[in-house]
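Renewal narrative, Specific Aim 1. Our central claim is that a sequence can be written position by position from structural information alone. The example that follows is taken directly from our test logs and has not been curated for this report. It begins with the structure tokens describing the chain, in the order in which they were read.
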């Protein structure tokens, strides 16, 4: 089990939004979306080349070039990453209908690694002592693309309009 204190995230520079490229710096907007999103999806590659999608609730920003998540109950994802470290992560704020697709290379960290203790501490503080952290996965993020709902393009909706509409659809506010 990973143990240690959380190290604060250092200041991050803003990249060009919606651009592909290498060496992308994780922006404050990306951090905000990750922190708001409670469920993200990680894609890895199975032995037969088929995609494997795994829901994650522990994706966090480690620093301006790396994301991290805890291996709570994902032995298949871990096996895939040890054999083929390519990874994609989709993070979407379901109310604003926007987010980011991150791509990069993953590294499975053992429980003694400081980054593993960092995410394990966050996991315990967020979910209590009963949720395990078997490993951590550190992602060197090399690509980031903004994801936008077609409502922004075709309906010319604004983020506040979409947030209100989806909060109403989910029964979170009165229409």
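The sequence written for that structure reads:
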């Amino acid at each position: 089990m990973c143990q240690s204190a959380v190290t604060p995230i250092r200041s991050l520079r803003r990249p060009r939004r919606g651009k592909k490229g290498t060496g992308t710096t994780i922006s404050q907007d990306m951090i905000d979306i990750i922190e708001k999103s409670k469920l993200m999806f990680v894609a890895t590659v199975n032995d037969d080349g088929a995609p494997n999608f795994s829901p994650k609730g522990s994706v966090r920003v480690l620093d301006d070039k790396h994301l991290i998540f805890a291996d709570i109950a994902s032995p298949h994802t871990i096996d895939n990453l040890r054999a083929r470290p390519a990874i994609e992560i989709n993070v979407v704020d379901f109310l604003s209908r926007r987010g980011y697709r991150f791509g990069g290379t993953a590294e499975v960290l053992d429980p003694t690694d400081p980054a593993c203790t960092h995410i394990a501490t966050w996991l315990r503080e967020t979910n209590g002592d009963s949720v395990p952290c078997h490993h951590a996965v550190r992602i060197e993020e090399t690509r980031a693309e903004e994801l936008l709902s077609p409502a922004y393009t075709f309906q010319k909706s604004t983020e506040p309009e979409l947030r209100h509409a989806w909060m109403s659809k989910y029964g979170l506010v009165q229409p």
